[in-house]
Specification:
- About 35% of the residues lie in helices and about 20% in strands.
- It has about 350 residues and is of the alpha/beta class.
- It is built from 10 helices and 11 strands.
- The model has no long low-confidence stretch (mean pLDDT about 95).
- The N and C termini lie close together (about 10 Å).
- Helix 1 packs across helix 8 and helix 9 packs across helix 10.
- Bound molecules: nicotinamide-adenine-dinucleotide.
- The site of nicotinamide-adenine-dinucleotide has 36 residues, from helix 1, strand 2, helix 7 and helix 8.
Length: about 350
Amino acid sequence: MSKMKVALAGVGNCASAFLQGLQYYGNYREEALGLRHLFLGGFHPKDIQITAAFDIDNRKVGKDLSEAIFAQPNNVPKIADISPTGAIVQKSPVLDGVGEYTKNVIQISNKPDANVAKILKESDAEILVDLLPSGAVKASQWYAEQALNAGCAFVNVTPAFVASDAAWAGRFEKAELPLVGDDLIDQVGATTLHKTLLKLLSMNGVRITETYQLDVGGGTESLDTLERTRDVKRTVKTKSVEAALPYKAEVVAGSMDYVDFLQNRRDSYFWIRGLYFCNTPMQIDLKLSTVDAPNAGSVLFDVIRAAKIALNKKLKGAIQPICAYAFKHPPQMVPLETAETTFADFVKNNT
Ligand SMILES: NC(=O)c1ccc[n+]([C@@H]2O[C@H](COP(=O)([O-])OP(=O)(O)OC[C@H]3O[C@@H](n4cnc5c(N)ncnc54)[C@H](O)[C@@H]3O)[C@@H](O)[C@H]2O)c1
C-alpha cells in the first residue's frame, strides 16, 4: 500500500494524541485494542505519513512535529515516544486563531508567515487536516482555501461550517477534490451516549420529562469553547439530543465549563428524569470521564483513510458517507444506523 501524505493545521492536543496513536499502533498486525478498524480499505495507520504541519505558537514553530506535540500549552498525557518525523512546524497566519480567553495561553511566534500552499505542494501533501481551535472560523476557512490552492483533500475536524456549507462543497467539487466535515464525532461521545440512553428509555415506554448534559474540561479547547463557541455548541447538541425522542421534552445539552486542573480530561454529567408504569417517577444521574484528545484518534484514523479512498477514486465535493459517519454536523444528518451502513458500503464499493 502506498503512504498517505498528510499535513496538519494546528499542533494542539488532538494532533498530539493522533501522532502518538500513529506510533502506538504502528506495529500492530492483528486486532488492536482501542481502534475500530486496524485496517480500513486495506490501509493500516502506519500508511499515514505526516509531511507538513502548521501552528502559530512560539513553543511549537520551528520544531520537529515529534517535539512540538509535547510543548505547552498541550496537556494530553504522553503515551509514546515519537521518532522524528522530518516535518518541521511552520508558522502560519494567526487570523482569528487566538480568542480573548486563550490570548494568555498561546504565545504567538514572531517568525514570518510561511507560504502554506507552497509548502503543501512541496511536501506532496494529499490531505490537509484542520485541527484549529473551534472559534477560529476564519482561519479554518483560510486553510480550506489553501487546500484548494495546493490540490489537497480537506478534513475539517473543527465545528466551523465548511463541508456542510453548499458554497464550499461546490468549490471542492469544481476543483475535483474531496471535502469532509464538520466537527468530528468522539469515539466515546457524550452526545451519542445521551441520545442512546434516551432512545432506549423511550422505546421501553418511558416518558422523559427533563434531561441535561453538562461538560467540564481543562484543555485549551475547553477555554476557547467557553468564550467563542459555547452557544453554538449548546444549540447543535441540544437539537441533536432532542431528535432522539419521538416527543417533546425539556432538553439542555452541551452546556460546558472550564476547570484548569482537569488538564485534558473531560467530565460529562447526565441527568435524566422521566415517568414509567402508572406515572411512577425514575431518575438517572451519570458521570462519564474521558481524556479529550485521544477521543478523536480512532475516528480520525478512519476519516483520513476514507479520504484517501475518495482521492484514489477521484471523488469530489462533500463526501456524504464519510461526513455522516464521522462528523456531528454533516451536510445531511442521517440516523446513526444509516450512517454506519452507508460508510461500510462506501469503503467496500470503492476499494
Ligand atoms: N476529542 C477531541 O479532541 C475533538 C473532537 C471533535 C472536534 N475536535 C476539534 O478539534 C480541534 C482541535 O482540538 P484541540 O483539542 O487539539 O485544540 P487545541 O486548542 O489544543 O489546539 C489548537 C492548535 O491550533 C493552533 N492554532 C491557533 N490558531 C492557528 C492558526 N491560525 N494557524 C495554525 N495553528 C493555529 C494553536 O496554537 C493550537 O496548537 C478543535 O476545533 C476541536 O473542537 C476535537
